[in-house]
Amino acid sequence: MNKITILIHCKDRRNIIATITNFIAEKGGNIVYIDQHVDREQNIFFMRLESEFIVDGFSTDIFKEAFETHLATKFEMKWRIYSTAIKPKMALFVSKYDHCLYDLLGRYNSGELNLEIPFIISNHNDLKPIADSFNIPFYHIPVTKDTKVEAENKQLELLEKHQINFIVLARYMQIISEKLIKKYPNKIINIHHSFLPAFVGAKPYHSAYKRGVKIIGATSHYVTEELDAGPIIDQGVARVSHTHSIEDLIAKGRDLEKIVLANAVKLHTNRKVMVFNNKTVIFS
Amino acid sequence: MNKITILIHCKDRRNIIATITNFIAEKGGNIVYIDQHVDREQNIFFMRLESEFIVDGFSTDIFKEAFETHLATKFEMKWRIYSTAIKPKMALFVSKYDHCLYDLLGRYNSGELNLEIPFIISNHNDLKPIADSFNIPFYHIPVTKDTKVEAENKQLELLEKHQINFIVLARYMQIISEKLIKKYPNKIINIHHSFLPAFVGAKPYHSAYKRGVKIIGATSHYVTEELDAGPIIDQGVARVSHTHSIEDLIAKGRDLEKIVLANAVKLHTNRKVMVFNNKTVIFS
Amino acid sequence: MNKITILIHCKDRRNIIATITNFIAEKGGNIVYIDQHVDREQNIFFMRLESEFIVDGFSTDIFKEAFETHLATKFEMKWRIYSTAIKPKMALFVSKYDHCLYDLLGRYNSGELNLEIPFIISNHNDLKPIADSFNIPFYHIPVTKDTKVEAENKQLELLEKHQINFIVLARYMQIISEKLIKKYPNKIINIHHSFLPAFVGAKPYHSAYKRGVKIIGATSHYVTEELDAGPIIDQGVARVSHTHSIEDLIAKGRDLEKIVLANAVKLHTNRKVMVFNNKTVIFS
Amino acid sequence: MNKITILIHCKDRRNIIATITNFIAEKGGNIVYIDQHVDREQNIFFMRLESEFIVDGFSTDIFKEAFETHLATKFEMKWRIYSTAIKPKMALFVSKYDHCLYDLLGRYNSGELNLEIPFIISNHNDLKPIADSFNIPFYHIPVTKDTKVEAENKQLELLEKHQINFIVLARYMQIISEKLIKKYPNKIINIHHSFLPAFVGAKPYHSAYKRGVKIIGATSHYVTEELDAGPIIDQGVARVSHTHSIEDLIAKGRDLEKIVLANAVKLHTNRKVMVFNNKTVIFS
After folding, report:
1. DSSP string covering A204-241, please?
2. What CATH superfamily classification does B2-83 receive?
3. Cβ contacts of residue C274 below 8 Å, gap of 6+?
4. Of the candidates C133, C251, C262, which has its C-beta nearest B133's C-beta?
5. Contacts of residue C235 in chain A, CB cutoff 8 Å?
6. Which CATH number fits domain C90-282: 3.40.50.20, 3.40.50.170, 3.30.300.130, 3.20.20.30?
C-alpha cells in the first residue's frame, strides 16, 4: 500500500475541490482524508489530502510529475507531496536547558513522534550525558562572536550530510543566521517563552513579572529573519498570580514550553502545517 | 446564488470522496467547504459539504431527489440537505433561572445566532418580563404531576404550529417525555451543569462540592431517553478551590452554562453536528 | 454584628503580622479572614483582614481613628477600612456595545454583585432601552471633540452627586481624561479586548488576526494615564484557529470580555484588590 | 536561622487567629506567611503558618512540646510542624510507563523539587535504565497473586529502612493494600488518568472515548481504601474531539498526568495540603 500526503495552496476558484479529487481518482488514488480552508481576505485556497494507491508499481515520483504537469501548473499551485513511508529527519539544537530535550526524547522513545533524530547539536557540552543515555550522537559546536561563521558552517555540513528535513531549537539560546534560515524556510521551529507578540526578545518571564500579567504563555513558531515574528504554530498559557516569583514563572513556563514545542513538532512532522503570509493554517 | 449544506454518513468505502464531489460538480455545484471524518472503529464515513449553485432555476428539492436517487440509495447513505437561506426555528424552554435566557437572547439580538425564536415556553411566569423586553411571545404552561400530559400536548401543539426545528432547554427543570424526544430526535439540546459523565442528575454542584473536585464543568448534549446520557455536543470547565462555597460553584457554573449552551446552539444551527452511536462528530 | 475589611500595605518588618492581629484582638475584634503577601523584590508587606466586632456601640470611624493613631502611623502603613454593611456605588459607562452591559446587569439582578448601580452614562442613546428594562437611570452625555470638557464636567457632577465609589467602562469607547483618572485613582476599571501587553490600543482583534495568534484574550485593568498600561486585575483567554475570521474573533472575544470584566468588578467590590507599583495583589 | 511550617485544624472559635499569632510571637517567632480557611459547613478552622526564629538555641522539638502543651491541647487542635531545613523523602513506585518517571526525575534534577528520592520500586524491570541514568537505586519487586504479601513486606522494609515520608505512584499499576495505606495515611499520592469522579477504575481513556466526551482529564489524589475515591489534590484537563482515537487520548493524557502529578508532589512537599473529611484544603 502506498500512501501520500498532498498539501496545496493556490488562488481560490470554482470547482477546485472537484478538480483535485477527480485527478486523484483518475490516477487510482483513494482519498482517505481531505480538509480545506479558504482565506477569504486573500482569496487563497488551501488543501490537505491523504490518498492511498493500491495500483501495482505506484511511484510517488511519477505521481508528482503528473501532478505538476496536469494540475499544478494549470492552477498555479504551490504544492508538496510526501510519502508517508518516509520519516522526516529532525536536527535538535540545544544549549544548557534540558527540559525540552528530555521531553522530546521521552516522546521519541515512547514512539509518540513519527520522525528520526540523526543528531543533537549544542554550543555547550552540558547536555551530552542526556544525548548519550538516549543513544543519539551529540555534536558540541561552541559559538563565540569570533567563531560564529565557522560554527555555522559546521552545522550546515552536519545538516546536509544527514539530509536533515527540519530543525528544532529546543531552547537553543543563539540567534540563527540569515543563511541558515534561507536554507530551511519554514523548517526551523523555535519555542519562545512568552505569549507572542507580547514580550518579544530576551527574558520574557522577567518582563511578564514586571507587567503583572495574570496569564503567561509559550509560543512555537517558524524562525524568520525578524526576531520572534515568524508564523505561529501553537501557543499555550497558564494562570499565574502575585504570589509567583520570577523563578515560579520560569518553572511554570517550562511545562508550557515542553508541550507547545512538542505539539509544533508533531504538527510539522504530520504535514499538518501550511504557511502563507506569515501565518499558519493548521489542519486537524 | 443558492447555497446548500450537505451532511452524509455511510459505510466507508473506496472512492467515496471523489464520487460525492464528482456528483456535485456534475449538477453544477461549486464546493466551497468540505470536511470529512472516518470512525475507524465502526468503519463509518462522515462528510459535511457546502456547495453553491449558480445555475438558473436551481431547486433544492429537485437536487435532493437527484441526490437520493443517484447517490444516497446506492451507497446506503443517511443524509440531510439544508438550504442556507432558511433559518432554523428554535423553541426556548425555560423555568426560573434567567442567565441562559438572557445570554441567548443577547446573542440573538446582536445577530450572533443564525436562527429564529418564534416563542419561549415556561412552566413558570417569572421570566415573562425578559421575553417581553426582547419582544418574543411567551407561553406559560404550568407542569404538575396531574397536568403533565396536558401540558405536553400544549407544547407539542405550539411546536407544530410554528414548525419548530429544534428545542433548547435553557435550564428547563422538567424531565422531557419519551413522546417529545421521539418527535425531535437529536433536536432537543440540554445544558447539564456538570462535567458529564460525572454528577449525572440533580444538584451536581452540591455533589461536586462534596467530592472536593478542583475543576467544575458544564455539558451541552442532545436529550435522549436515558437521563444526561445523550450525545455530548460541547463541554466547558473552570478551576475551583476549597475556598468556593456551593453558592460560588453555582455562580461560576452559570458562566460555563451560558457559553457551553450557546456553543451548542451555534454548532447545531450551522449544521456542524452529526450524531452516530450516541456520540457527535463536530465539524469545524 | 459589625464587620469590617482592612487592607494594609507597608514596608515588611519583624512581627508585623502578630502586631496587627494583636491590635485587633485588643479592640475586641474577632479576625475571621486573614491573608497576606510579601513582595520580596520591593520588601513590601500586604495584608487583608476581615474582622467582626460584637462590642456594643462599635463605630467604624472610631476604630479607624485608633488604627491610624496607634498602628498605621507607627508602621507607615497605607490602609483602607471598609464596613461590609455598605455597598459600593458603581457608575457604568457604556457606548454602543451591549454585551458587557447585559452581562453586568444580569448578574446585578440575580444578586451576584454586592454593589449599587445609581446610573449608567453613555455617549450614545442606543442602550437606553436596556437600562430602562432594568430600571436604572440612563444619562446620555454625547462626546465630541468640541464638547469633551463640558461632557466630562457633566459626568463629574453626576459622579459626585451620587457619591460614586468606582467606575466601570463596559466597552466605553472614549479616552478618559487625566482629570477623571486623578479623581478616581485605581477606581476606574476598563476591559481591554486583548491579552495585554499584546495589542495595545484600537482594533486588537484585527491585529490578532493579522499576527495569526492561536489564542486571544481580554484584560481588565485599572485606568491610568498611559493607555492600556494600568494594573492588570484579571485576564482570560480562548483558543482560536485559522478558520476564525475577524468577526469570529470579535464574537469569541465578547464572551471573554464579559467574564473578565465581571471578575474584576467582583474582586474590586469585595475589596480583594491592592495596587502597588502598577501591579495588583489579588487576595483569594 | 530556623524556619518552621505549622499546619493546624480545629473547631473554629473566636480569637483563634490572634491566639495563635500571639503564641508564636511570645516564643520569639516572626511569622512570614499566614493563610487560613474556615469550612463554614463543618465549622472547622484551618491554618498554615511559616515562622522564623532567630533565637539562639532554638529547637523545633522543644517548640513542638510547648505548642502541644500550651496551645494545641486547649483548643483540641490537630497539628503538624515541620522544619523547612529537612527535605521529605519520597519513594517512587512505577510499573512500565515511563512518562511520569522521566518527568519527575527531570524536575528533581533541575532542582524544582524540594525532596529526596532514596529509591524507586517497580514490579517490572523495564524502567531500571532510567533510574540508572539518574543514579537512583532501583528495586525490582515483582508482584503476582501468590507473592503479593511477600512483595509488600519487602516494600515496607525498604520504606522503613529509608525513613520514607511519602509515596508517589507514578502510574504504578497495582492496587495498594490496606496495610500500606494505613501506615501512610494521606501520604500516598496516585495519579488517575481521568477527570474524577468520572471514569473510576481501569481503562478510563477507553471509557472517555466511548462516551464521546469533549474534554479529558487527570486527577492526583491521596490513596484511600476505596478505589480512586481519596481526597483530590489537583486536576487538569485538555480538549479533545471526534478526530482523536483512543491512542490520541492516551498520548494527550500523558501530558496531563505528568503535570498534575508533579503539582501534587510539589504541593505535598511544600506542606500546602491539608486533608479533612476526604477533601483537601490547598494553601497558596
Report:
1. HHHHHHHHT-SEEEEEEEE--SSTT-SPEEEEEEEE--
2. ACT domain (3.30.70.260)
3. C7, C9, C46, C48, C280, C281, C283
4. C133
5. 213-215
6. 3.40.50.170
- The mean predicted confidence, pLDDT, of chain C is 96
CB D194 within 8 A of CB D215: no
**Do the beta carbons of residue D196 and residue D228 sit within 8 Å?**
yes
Instruction: Determine the average pLDDT of the residues in A142-159.
Output: 95
For B18-28, the pLDDT digits (tens) are 999 999 999 99
Per DSSP, helices labelled H in chain D are 16-26, 60-67, 99-109, 128-133, 148-161, 178-183, 204-211, 246-269
pTM, to two decimals? 0.96
Residues C14-39 pLDDT 10s: 999 999 999 999 999 999 999 999 99
Boundaries of every domain in chain A: 2-83, 90-282
Q: State the nearest Cα–Cα gap between C245 and chain B, in angstroms.
A: 13
Task: Please list the active-site residues of A.
Answer: 228
Nearest to D197 among B39, B198, B241 (CB): B198
Mutate: best of B42, B44, B213, B228, partner D, most D CBs <10 A: B213
For residue C245, list chain A residues with Cβ-Cβ distance below 8 A: 40
Q: What is the pLDDT of residue A55?
A: 82
pLDDT, one tens digit per residue, over D30-78 is: 999 999 999 999 999 999 999 999 888 899 999 999 999 999 999 999 9
pLDDT at D110 exceeding the cut of 90: no
Nearest-CA distance C208 → chain D (Å): 22
Asked if C112 and B251 come within 8 Å (Cβ–Cβ), the reply is yes
For residue D138, the cross-strand partners are D120
Q: Buried b vs exposed e over C114-143: b needs ≥16 C-beta within 10 Å? A: ebebbbbbbbeeebeebbeebebebeebeb
- Per DSSP, the three-state class of B162 is coil
**Spatial separation of the C-alpha atoms in residues D164 and D158, rounded to whole Å:** 8
Q: What is the pLDDT of residues A27-63, one digit of tens each?
A: 999 999 999 999 999 999 999 999 999 888 899 999 9
pLDDT value for B1: 76
Q: What is the pLDDT of residue C22?
A: 94
Closest-CA residue to B167 (of B146, B149, B191, B144): B191
What residues of D are annotated to the active site? 228
Q: How far apart are CA D45 and CA C32, in angstroms?
A: 10
Instruction: State the Cα–Cα distance between residues A225 and B72, nearest whole angstrom.
Output: 52
Percent of chain D residues past pLDDT 90, beyond the cut: 96
Per-residue b or e along B36-54, where b marks 16 or more CB atoms closer than 10 Å to that residue's CB: bbbbeeeebbbbbbbbbbe
Residue C239, C-alpha cell as written in the block: 483558543
Query: In which region does residue D2 sit, left (phi positive, over 0), alpha (psi from -120 to 50) or beta (all else)?
Result: beta
d(CA C126, CA C98): 9
